[in-house]
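[Amino acid chain]
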Amino acid sequence: MTAAPDNRHITLIGAGLAGAVLATLLVQRGWRVDVYEKRGDPRVQGYGGGRSINLALAERGRHALRLAGADDAVMKHAVMMRGRMVHFLDGRTDLQRYGRDDSEVIWSVHRGELNVVLLDIAERAGARLHFDRGLSGVDFDARIATFTDPRDASTHQAAFESLVGADGAGSALRAAMTKEIALGDRIESLGHSYKELEIPPARDGSFSIEPNALHIWPRGRYMCIALPNDERTFTVTLFLPNEGDPSFATVRDGAEARALFQRDFADALPLIPNLETDFERNPTGILATLTLDRWHLDGRAVLLGDAAHAMVPFHGQGMNCAFEDCVALAEQLDAQPDRASAFAAFQADRLPNARAIQQMALENYLEMRDRVDDDDYLLQRALERELAQRHPDRFMPRYAMVTFHRIPYATAFERGRQQRELLVDLTRGHASLDTLDWSAVDTAVRERLSPLPVDA
């Protein structure tokens, strides 16, 4: 057993992205940090692929990385994405920018590369990393955690003062906490799943398609996306319903996947030479939303990131939200008189914001697969851009509030709802912006929208 803990020691469960960032932030603040991870060290054995949707790094995430001294190292592996490159069924493409210009973009990063960079930084900062240690039991009264080595099933115990669960949607710490207290956990399946594929570099080593975009093939009830990697590949993700036609119930092997692509994603098919192999080899990923009513067990344990609020990936905010959690928890541990108060304040601050981004992520899936090629949607997007220029103090697209700023998610969600209603009302009965009465439009904006909140 390890030595008895002290009041500036904290134990993190999970050495993924959030665990590594939180470890670094806490060490910087004078905490002694031990991190336990059930997997082996990815810096030694490599990162297991096939399950990872590429990550979209945005301002909230970069803010946390700057605080952790990691932004420069991470950005060496990031590829800029200016917007959505929509691939229509007839072969046409259209770039729909995320922001006004290249100052408002998101960045594609590979989960495996990012994890390695962040682990190196956490270890250099002074965090102690323990791999092949899966949490298998917790005695909360005695404050003893038991870990099992998956290689030989040996067990190891460690005393703790507090446990922080950064161990993902299948959190072992959350499972242990539910034996002590009701967390009100609910899992809502999307009814859709995903499969990872890959576009390799072109024969000359360059990107096969436009590198600075998130490519999307929207097809109503389903879609395909592709995000660039710094080695000039693209991580492709096919999203299908679990039932119906087409679905993962009808597209079951490589040959059926090829037939689907020939019919619905014809321009993508030549880009994916290993389609059949990737489809059959890579696991089918589950898409679901996890909500909890409670994230902490007094001062003994607290959850963050996917362990507390897993979401579907369609707003690209899961990682960014988790990194924001890390900053918030580190700040509350500094600001509050004890851990129980810090954990309670952290939950009070972050839970409503997590609920808001979970809802926005679900809405964004509908938008991406159903609306990006819809005429009404495109007209509203055009008006949205115009109003953002005409009334920058009152109108900011919800996507911009979420992605390019650190306005609280809950604020962005409510403000976005008000703005969407305004866009629908102003474009009703119009086929283009040319027929709008701009004087009436400007008046409506001033009457219905208060000045925007100041960014965080």
